[in-house]
TrEMBL record:
GO CC terms, sorted: cytosol
Cited Pfam families: 2-Hacid_dh, 2-Hacid_dh_C
Family label: Belongs to the D-isomer specific 2-hydroxyacid dehydrogenase family. GhrB subfamily.
Keywords: NAD, Oxidoreductase, Pyruvate
Known EC number: 1.1.1.79, 1.1.1.81
Family annotation (PANTHER family): 2-HYDROXYACID DEHYDROGENASE-RELATED, GLYOXYLATE_HYDROXYPYRUVATE REDUCTASE B
Lineage of producing organism: Bacteria, Pseudomonadati, Pseudomonadota, Gammaproteobacteria, Pseudomonadales
Keyword match Thylakoid: no
Protein name: Glyoxylate/hydroxypyruvate reductase B
Domain D-isomer specific 2-hydroxyacid dehydrogenase catalytic: 5-319
Keyword Transcription on entry: no
Gene Ontology molecular function: any one: glyoxylate reductase (NADPH) activity
Length: 320
């Protein structure tokens, strides 16, 4: 008898066929729309789950005694209690690698958009306000040659360093658990303490995963260490930052601008003070959101899940 998979992420016809070839699939579109009622009802039959953006807590897992594997269509695994999944014997997989370059592209889009005030000025043009050539009031700041500070030197951090070093001639400094000699050599990068990075970098890019240790890592003290020309970019998770402290830093001119793809609460509240600030470029968590990359992530998740349900070791197993 085929195993049963609950799918809560829309797949392309080709990937759905690949999944259905081996397992029975129940698709639950937007499980949050009925407060997870359909998901709860289906969980007792589930051997596998495939989807993203769902907090899989103990109460939900208790409903799924047959569960063998969860394939997350994401690199971040902050929606899961890995230790609890391991205790229950449930394999967790994610989708690293395939989204690295696309997410770094998003990071650089935010670097350029904030420095050159692209969104603010494009809005200004559309509003019919471009009536004479622009002056210093509308000038931005250079990207090339400025210091790029990367917090978290994982795959995405490296891809950012590559863009900064080779594309924009930027000195690269980074903070991570330990120095990475290969990164230092390839990108002329320098490992440093967090405070040093905050003081020295012109662009401060956050790429750390959300964990107990990184929650609230960047707060009022950290924004105080940044210079008034600093630009802060977050493409990791909103909760790594104290959002109220960020808002204050932007409102008081403690830092120049922020490019934010992630927020403490998502979707970001429409009345968030962040959205009222011209020096904020806010995007809706689109780090990996291209047709090609989302398809590659979904393919990776399908392969991981099928391998796990066959009793093989999936390529991207997260549990230790
Ligand atoms: C990821 O893959 O973790 C992205 O941030 C989407 O959640």
């Amino acid at each position: 008898m085929k195993k049963h998979v609950l799918l809560y992420k829309k797949l392309s016809p080709a990937l759905l066929a690949r999944l259905e070839n081996e397992v029975e699939v129940t698709y639950i579109d937007d499980p949050a729309s009925d407060s997870l009622a359909r998901l709860r009802e289906a969980l007792p039959q589930a051997h596998g789950l495939l989807g993203a953006s769902l907090k899989l807590d103990a109460a939900l897992l208790d409903l799924a005694p047959q569960l063998e594997a969860v394939a997350s269509v994401s690199v971040g695994v902050d929606n899961y209690d890995i230790a609890d999944l391991s205790r229950r014997g449930v394999k967790l997989t994610n989708t690293p690698d395939v989204l690295t370059e696309t997410t770094a592209d998003t990071g650089f889009a935010l670097v350029l958009a904030t420095a050159r005030r692209v969104v603010e000025l494009a809005t200004w043009v559309r509003a019919g306000q471009w009536t004479a050539s622009v002056g210093p009031k509308h000038f931005g700041t250079d990207v090339h040659g400025k210091t790029l500070g990367i917090i978290g030197m994982g795959r995405i951090g490296e891809a950012l360093a590559q863009r900064g070093h080779f594309g924009f001639n930027m000195p690269v400094i980074y903070h991570s658990h330990s120095a990475k000699p290969a990164v230092d050599q390839r990108f002329g990068a320098r490992h440093c303490a967090l405070d040093e990075l905050l003081r020295e970098a012109d662009f401060i890019c956050l790429t750390l995963p959300l964990t107990k240790e990184t929650t609230g890592l960047i707060g009022a003290r950290e924004f105080e260490l940044m210079g008034e020309d600093s630009i802060f970019i977050n493409i990791s998770r909103g909760k790594v930052v104290d959002e109220q402290a960020l808002i204050r830093a932007l409102q008081t001119g403690q830092i120049r601008a922020a490019g934010l793809d992630v927020f403490e609460r998502e979707p970001v509240q429409t009345d968030s003070p962040l959205l009222a600030l011209d020096n904020v470029v806010a995007t809706p968590h689109i780090g990996s959101a291209t047709h090609e990359t989302r398809e590659a992530m979904a393919r990776c998740a399908v392969d991981n899940l099928l391998a796990a349900l066959r009793g093989e070791r999936p390529q991207n197993l997260v549990n230790p």
